[in-house]
C-alpha cells in the first residue's frame, strides 16, 4: 500500500503544486479544471494546514478513488454473474434477461448515435436489475457504522438506549435486505421487482404517483430505510449526485 502511495504521490505532487500556484495567481473560471482533484484542493484550506498540503490532498484523492473503484467493480461483477445465471437454461423461444436488457440499451442508444450520459436514466430495466443484484449481493452484516464521539455519549432519539463515547454502532443491512416482511421472496433475484414499482408511475407524474404508493425511492441511487447499499442519512453516498451531474 505504502509503495503504491509513493508512486501515485510522485505523479500527483507536481500537478497539485501547479494547481495551487495557479489558484494563488488567480486563474480564470474558464481555465480552471472542474474535477475532483480541484474540488479537494479548494476545500482543503478550510480544514487547516494539515489538510492543505500535497501529501494530504493526494491521500484524500486516493481514498476516494478506492471507494469509487472497488464498489463499482464488485457491483458490475455481481450483475454479470446474475445475468449469466438467470439467462442459463432459458428455453430458446423465450427472451433471457440479457436479451431484454440489450433491447432496452439498443432502444435508448441506437448504435448510430453516440452514448449520451443524460439518457442513462432511461435505462430503467437495467437500473432495476442492478438494484436487485445490489440488494442480494452487496450488503454485509452491518451498514452505516458510526462511532460515538460526544464525551457524554449518545442516547437514541426514543431515549431507550445510551452508548458511551467511542462506542461503535452499525445497522443490520443484509438482514433487512433478506427480510420477507420487507421484500417478497427475498432470496430470489427478481429483477422485475423494482422495475415494477417504477412502472406504476406514469412518466409525466413520477413524484406524485410514487409518493402515493410510498415508493419514492425505487431507483438504485436513492437511499431509503429499506435499502442500505449506499448508506442512509448524512453520510450516505452523496457523491453520486455529483456524478449524475
Ligand atoms: C456501487 C457503487 C457504490 C456503493 C455500493 C457505495 C457504497 C457506499 C456506502 C455504503 C457508503 C457509506 C455510507 C454511510 O456510512 O452511511 C459510501 C460512502 C462513500 N462513498 Fe460510496 N459507494 C459506491 C460508489 C462510490 C463512488 C463511485 C464514489 C466516488 C466517486 C464513492 C465515494 C464515497 C465516499 C467519498 C463516501 C464517504 C461519504 C461520507 O462519509 O460522507 N462511492 N459508499
Brief summary:
With 245 residues, the chain is mainly alpha-helical. It has helices at residues 2-25, 36-43, 54-87, 97-108, 124-137, 174-177, 193-199, 206-212, 239-244; strands at residues 142-147, 154-155, 162-163, 168-172. It binds protoporphyrin IX containing FE.
Write the layout of secondary structure elements.
Blueprint lengths: L1 H24 L10 H8 L10 H34 L9 H12 L15 H14 L4 E6 L6 E2 L6 E2 L4 E5 L1 H4 L15 H7 L6 H7 L26 H6 L1
The structure holds protoporphyrin IX containing FE.
Number of domains: 2
Structural class: mainly alpha
Distance between the termini: 32 Å
Q: Supply Rg.
A: 22 Å
**Biggest β-sheet: strands ordered side by side in the sheet:** 1-4
Question: What is the CATH topology descriptor of the largest domain?
Answer: Cytochrome p450
CATH homologous group name of the largest domain: Cytochrome P450
Q: How many strands appear in the DSSP assignment?
A: 4
Q: Round the mean pLDDT to the nearest integer and report it.
A: 86
Which band does the percent of strand residues land in?
A: 5-15%
Q: Portion of residues in helices?
A: 40-55%
Low-confidence stretches: 202-210, 239-245
Architecture overview:
With 245 residues, the chain is mainly alpha-helical. The protein has helices spanning 2-25, 36-43, 54-87, 97-108, 124-137, 174-177, 193-199, 206-212, 239-244, and strands at residues 142-147, 154-155, 162-163, 168-172. The strands form two sheets. The chain has a two-stranded antiparallel ribbon with strand order 1-4. A two-stranded antiparallel ribbon has the order 2-3. It is globular and about 65 Å long. Residues 202-210 and 239-245 have low confidence and may be disordered. The site of protoporphyrin IX containing FE has 16 residues, from helix 3 and strand 1.
